[in-house]
Amino acid sequence: MGMSAEDERAASPRDEEWPEAEKAEKLARGAALKWASGVFYRPEKLEGLGHYRRRETQRNSSIQSRLKSTVQSYLEGVSAGLEQLRSAAQEVQSVCQDLGAARWALLDSADHFQGLQQMRELMEEHVQLASVVQVLPQIFSVHEVFSHILHLLHGQHLLEAHVELMMVEQVRDDILSQLHLRGLSSAQATVLSYFSGLQDLNESLAKQLWDIVGNSLRLVREDPVLFVTAVRIIEREEKIDDTLLLEATFLPPGRPKGWRQKFYQVLQDTITGAHFHAPCMDAEGPGLAKHLAALQKDIVSELRVVKDLMVQCVPAHYNILSVCTATFHQALTSHLQEILREDLDKQGLFLLLEWALRVYHSPEMMAHPDLLPEVDVSALDPLMSSELVDQTERRYVMKVKASVFEWMQRTLEVEFKEWFREEEPETDHQGFFQSALPAIVMQMLNENIQVASLITDSLQQKIYDMALEELEAFLGRLREALVQCGKEHQQDRAVPKYYISHLLAVLNNNLALSNSVSSLHPDTACREVPASLQAALDRMQKKATQLLLEELLLDLQPLCLQLPSRKWLSGSQLVSSMCEVIDKYAKDFSHVRKPVFTLLLAESELLVASQYLRALLQRKMVCKGREERGQLCHRLLQDATQLRELFCGLGLDRSQQSLEAVFALRELIYLKDPALLSLEVVGFITKYPDVSDEHISTLLDIRGDVSKEVRHVVLEMMAQHPQVLPEGYRPIFSTILVPVPELPFCLRKGKCA
Fold first, then answer.
1. Which of 16, 113, 162, 478 has a CA 20 to 30 Å removed from the CA of 73?
2. Buried/exposed 715-726: b ≥16 CB within 10 Å, e otherwise
3. Distance separating alpha carbons of residues 591 and 596, to the nearest angstrom
4. Listed residue (356, 383, 352, 361) closest to 288, CA to CA
5. Whole-angstrom Cα distance, residue 611 to residue 599?
6. Which residue ranges does the record annotate as region Disordered (predicted)?
7. Does 713 lie in the same domain as 641?
8. CA distance 487 to 546
9. How far from 177 is each of 15, 124, 137, 248, 675, CA to CA, in Å?
10. DSSP single-letter state for residue 496
């Protein structure tokens, strides 16, 4: 269905004006053709073509009619709009004509306006003169008003005085403002000179106000009216300051007064001066305790007055309770720092720490029921900084350390004197020797640690560390005193008279200290004794044990000097005498507690065994034959058995005894076939790895039947089986020195005959 030539001509201008319409029409036609070709593609669909044509014709007619109706309504609206525009244009033209006429009329009246300006200036001058005339009576009466204000101030009629003072200031400020606008600075100076009395009146009023504020805590209890009056005056002045600062056109002299800020300053200075600028108190404990107690009482009392009375006398925005609380807090902080600059003793330092860290925050002071919940110092900085607390704690620890050292030294001196008394040391209910030293030392240390726990955990830990250091140092001094006592005893064995008993008491004391040290630790779950302190305790025990063994050795040496000998070999009572000496010492050892008693038995047994072997090896006896060798082995067996039974009877197990070495040595001597010595020696050195070649050579000499070849084989065998001391092995032969045999002279390298 193509378009006619007229339609194309009619459409072409529109298409040129609206290219989108042409594009839309083409798309619509393309879509219609595509639809039609799809619908009528099959022959059976062509029968409905006529029906479709009629339906489309009706639809087009309907659309065209609606379009015509819509266009018609639009055209009618456009016509009405054009008519209104025509009418508005006529009215605008009329207004323009009227404005032109008015403009010419104004131009004609310009000369008359100049006359009006002069009249306006005259009117302004008249108004100013009228205002001046109006205030002239007030200006003339200024000095009279000054006198009246001064009289009111003397009578403490502060509100009335302040009202008149404000009135005079207003007059002065109005005049100065007018002069300021006109730039008449010289006239301003004259006015200021005329109103110079205002400055004195202001100062007089301010002085009375600050006196009232300075006594505010007393006045709110006795006469709150006077205090409220002062606050009202301060608030009036504060409002005037705020108004003038907002206008910012002219600021009269003396403004802003800032009396509210001055109120805070005076109140803070009053609080500080009343309690914290007192003469320096006694730095010792009692004086400081009284001072802190007075501060505590006064601060609680005055904060209670502020909370209950002063808060009701001032506006809420003053936050007067918070201001006073912060003032007390800051003043206390500075005051405590001043006190700490003094050379306080340990009691003073403790009082200060306890007061600042415990009392200050307790219900006895800032957490007092009468102050809560309004008073809250938790938001403020700590009364003492963590650095200052740590520094003060260290000073306290140093003072306590000096005191502990002094007490321990005194205790040591008393203990040293006790050793030389003509009496045995005291015994407990079980018969163990002891002295008061452990109880005194531990009580002193424990009390200091417990006292420190009342302050902070850090102070308790510092005191605990100090206590262990001092205890370790004390053990060192006690050991030195013990050594000194031993030296004096060596010079005269009768002094001290009960030397062994006191040594046993020292061992019991050392054990008591060792058992008590763990109880000092603040943490009950941690009971370990520091390694350095345990080493000091061990050294102390070792030294006391050594001195006891030296005593035992002195009594055994005369008997050991008789070993070996022909008399001993033939069956003397030498070992029986040794057993008597040992039994006597064992009875003394029974006065020490079990662990130390077992240790003393073991060390005594080792001493006896080593002395027996030393006597046998150093003063060697060469057997002349098998019979004498058998006699020697029999004597060794009897002696070793007797000694072993003695120590077993005293409570020392065989596995803990070193006398087994005597039995093993006897077996080497008793061996009948010297050719088997190499094997026996290997077994011997395996069991006793501290045996040297010299020891074995001496044993072979004692046998008296070992050839050079056998000796050489034995020594070679030892060289092939070097021994290493196992962990926990108790050396016995390494402490025994044997005479070095004289070596034959050799000219060249090789084996000497």
1. 16
2. bebbeeeeeeee
3. 10
4. 352
5. 18
6. 1-23
7. yes
8. 13
9. 79, 16, 19, 12, 138
10. S
Q: Which residue has the tokens 């798309």?
A: 27
Q: Are residues 537 and 403 part of one domain?
A: yes
The phi and psi torsions of 718 (rounded to 5 degrees) equal -65, -40
328: its two tokens: 């007390």
Q: What is the pLDDT of residue 134?
A: 56
Q: Does 587 map to a domain?
A: yes
Structure tokens at 526: 């941690």
Question: Is the residue at 324 inside a domain?
Answer: yes
How many CB atoms within 10 Å of residue 219? 21
Range of the domain at 688: 563-735
- Peptide bond just before 530 cis, omega within 30 deg: no
Give the chain's length: 753
> Which residue type sits at 517?
V
Contact 403, 467 (CB under 8 A): no
Nearest partner of 479 among 403, 414, 404, 538, judged by Cα: 538
Cα 618 to Cα 560: distance, rounded to the nearest angstrom: 11
Among residues 384, 406, 436, the one where a domain terminates is: 384
As a whole number of Å, the CA-based R_g of the chain is 60
For the purposes of burial, counting CB atoms within 10 Å of the CB of 579, is it exposed (0-12), middle (13-18) or buried (19 or more)?
A: buried
Q: Angle, to 10 degrees, between the axis of helix 158-182 and the axis of helix 185-194?
A: 160
Number of structural domains the chain divides into: 3
Do 602 and 723 reside in the same domain of the chain? yes
Q: Which of 682, 747, 678 is nearest to 709 (CA)?
A: 678
DSSP secondary structure code for residue 737 in this structure = -
Helices and strands per DSSP (H, E), number in the chain: 27, 0
CATH of the domain at 614: 1.10.357.70
Same domain, yes or no, for 580 and 700? yes
> Which residues touch 468 (CB under 8 Å, ≥6 apart)?
517, 520, 530, 533
Cross-strand partners of 433 = 427
pTM for the full model?
Answer: 0.72
End-to-end CA distance of the chain: 149
Distance CA 282, CA 476 (A): 38
Nearest Cα to Cα of residue 251 among 188, 307, 333: 188
For residue 565, with 0-12 CB atoms within 10 Å meaning exposed, 13-18 middle and 19 or more buried, which class applies? middle
3-class DSSP assignment, residue 427:
strand
CA distance 684 to 678: 10
Rounded to 5°, the CA angle 545-515-426 comes to: 60
Mean per-residue pLDDT pooled into runs of 10, the chain (753 residues): 45 53 81 74 68 80 85 86 88 88 78 69 63 56 73 83 81 72 62 72 88 91 90 90 76 83 92 74 72 92 92 92 93 92 91 93 91 87 93 95 95 94 92 94 94 93 94 96 94 91 96 92 80 95 96 93 84 89 95 94 95 88 88 93 95 92 93 89 93 91 89 91 89 84 44 40
CA distance readout (Å), 110 to 167, 214, 484, 554, 615: 46, 69, 129, 145, 151
Q: Omega into 438 within 30° of 0, i.e. cis?
A: no
Whether 486 and 547 have beta carbons less than 8 Å apart is answered as yes
